[in-house]
Design a protein that fits this description.
By secondary structure, the protein is α+β, with helices and mostly antiparallel strands. The chain has three domains: 95 residues, Orthogonal Bundle (Helix Hairpins); 50 residues, SH3 type barrels (Roll), CATH 2.30.30.60; 96 residues, Alpha-Beta Plaits. The protein has seven helices and nine strands; from the N terminus they run ααααββββαβββαββα. Strands 4-3-2-1-5 form a five-stranded antiparallel beta sheet. A four-stranded antiparallel beta sheet has the order 6-7-9-8. Strand 2 and strand 3 form a beta hairpin. Helix 6 runs antiparallel to helix 7. The longest helix is centred in the N-terminal third of the chain and has 31 residues. The protein is rod-shaped, with a radius of gyration of 30 Å. It starts with 15 loop residues before the first helix and ends with a helix.
């Protein structure tokens, strides 16, 4: 079979082979775009992403696919891609200079969505900010703090800070949250009595929790002893109510013990 007809020129200034190749590229691009879009939509649902985040991901990959296909078609048409790449680089540099922070946040957002160090609904600590993750967008992550304020952190800031996700899986495979907080006391009450106070409070709350709280001494100085309390909850928002209740109950009993010792 002769393939010489592929070299025949057409009124468009392209050979038959070039036109067929471009048709193949367009077809592959269309199919690839559909497959990627479908996958990203499903990924967004599995990851519980906000609709605007899923749409941004789809748009980003559509642009990348179309850009790559355009380069291939220009090359197949016999044109050099140098001018196109140079123009794109110049435009990209101009846009990048004008919106460096936005692009940085965008890239950081893509990384967070891919790496998934936490998800919506988790109780997290990001640097000095802690609370429940309410929303993860391409540019910002919103966290509801214990003071009922909504903190918006840029994604690039999140990647520059220490991230602690309190999500926890116990020995039975149950998905819990292990929240830790510190409580400090002076030396007016013995460590034995403080341990007894903690145990009384933990016994009081254990029926409300999937696992009994615990504590340990983390540091002791000339003026105070500091204990780390481990609180296990099923729902992240339980932390908001239980942490202050437990802390208040511990200090109430500690004050009573100090008053007793002074008598």
């Amino acid at each position: 079979m002769s393939w010489e007809f592929l070299d025949m020129q057409t009124p468009l200034g392209l050979t038959v082979g070039q036109i067929l190749s471009i048709i193949v590229v367009v077809t592959v691009t269309f199919v690839l775009e559909r497959l990627v879009t479908r996958y990203l939509r499903r990924f967004g649902k599995r990851a519980h992403l906000a609709p605007n985040v899923s749409s941004s991901l789809v748009l980003t990959f559509r642009i990348l696919i179309i850009f790559s296909a355009t380069l291939v078609m220009i090359r197949m048409g016999g044109l050099t891609t140098d001018w196109f790449i140079a123009f794109s680089a110049l435009g990209g540099a101009a846009v990048g200079f004008a919106s460096q922070q936005t692009i940085g946040n965008f890239i950081a957002g893509l990384y967070l969505l891919a790496a998934r160090p936490f998800k919506v609904g988790d109780y997290v600590r990001v640097g000095a900010v802690e609370g429940i993750v309410q929303e993860i967008t391409i540019n910002y992550t919103k966290i509801l703090t214990i003071s009922n304020n909504l903190a918006s952190l840029s994604n690039i800031q999140i990647l520059q800070r220490d991230i602690i996700d309190c999500a926890y899986e116990d020995e039975h495979g149950a998905h819990l949250y292990c929240y830790t907080f510190e409580i400090g006391f002076d030396h007016s009450v013995s460590s034995e009595r403080i341990a007894h106070i903690f145990n009384e409070v933990f016994e009081q709350y254990k029926h409300l929790l999937p696992k009994k709280p615990s504590c340990m001494l983390v540091r002791s100085g000339a003026f105070e002893r500091v204990y780390m309390v481990y609180l296990y909850v099923e729902h992240s928002d339980d932390v908001f109510g239980l942490r202050p209740q437990i802390a208040e109950e511990v200090f109430k009993r500690w004050d009573m013990e100090r008053a007793r010792l002074k008598q």
